[in-house]
């Protein structure tokens, strides 16, 4: 659950911006650690989705890189950084109308689609 605007109180996927001289994979690992305290994850690139990130009166056009991580068991996570709360939601129960950004909604729809599941 997002702790700050834009879209405070809405659901979101962990993430953030890629720093200078950082790869998408490095940013993924850094953001998971900063936001959730999660370390040493194995990730698989899924897809990218464009987004408009409205902040402080400016519309930023971003390209969200989406990765899938598989966890052997549910880890103990701690909400930090920009996170108000952590919610585990079953794939079949995703409340798409509560997702903060179009790109995350589109990524989750793609993830749950038969197209991605066949890959």
Summing up helix and strand content along with how strands pair, one would put the structural category as: alpha+beta
> What summary fits the major beta sheet?
2 strands, antiparallel
What is the β-strand count? 2
Q: In what range is the share of β-strand residues?
A: 15-25%
Provide a count of the helices. 3
Q: Please mark out the parts with pLDDT under 50 across 5 or more consecutive residues, or reply none.
A: none
**SSE ordering:** HEEHH
Walk across the major sheet and give the strand order.
Answer: 1-2
Share of residues in helices: 10-25%
Q: Taking all residues together, what is the mean pLDDT? A: 93
Overall geometric form: globular
Radius of gyration: 14 Å
Question: What is the first-to-last residue Cα distance?
Answer: 29 Å
What keyword list fits this structure?
about 120 residues, alpha+beta, 3 helices, 2 strands
Quick synopsis:
With 119 residues, the protein is an alpha+beta fold. It has helices spanning 24-36, 102-112, 114-117, and strands spanning 43-55, 58-69.
Task: Explain the layout of strands and helices.
Blueprint: H1 24-36, E1 43-55, E2 58-69, H2 102-112, H3 114-117
Antiparallel strand pairs: 1-2
Description:
The structure is a single chain. The protein is an alpha+beta fold and 119 residues long. The model has no long low-confidence stretch (mean pLDDT 93). Strand 1 and strand 2 (58-69) form a beta hairpin. It has helices spanning 24-36, 102-112, 114-117, and strands at 43-55, 58-69. It has a two-stranded antiparallel sheet with strand order 1-2. The protein is built from 3 helices and 2 strands, in the order H-E-E-H-H.
